[in-house]
Design goal:
Length: 40
């Protein structure tokens, strides 16, 4: 595997992980907000 290909793969993996984490955090925030609204 060439270094350039590996670099591209690493960048894609980093983006995937970053987006996944952002999605999980957004879900957590949305769930907390929903719970706060329902608790009112």
């Amino acid at each position: 595997m060439s270094p350039r290909a590996r670099d591209g793969l690493g960048r894609r993996l980093a983006w995937f992980v970053a987006l996944w984490v952002a999605g999980v955090v957004a879900l957590g925030v949305a769930a907390a907000a929903l719970r706060a609204v329902l608790a009112l």
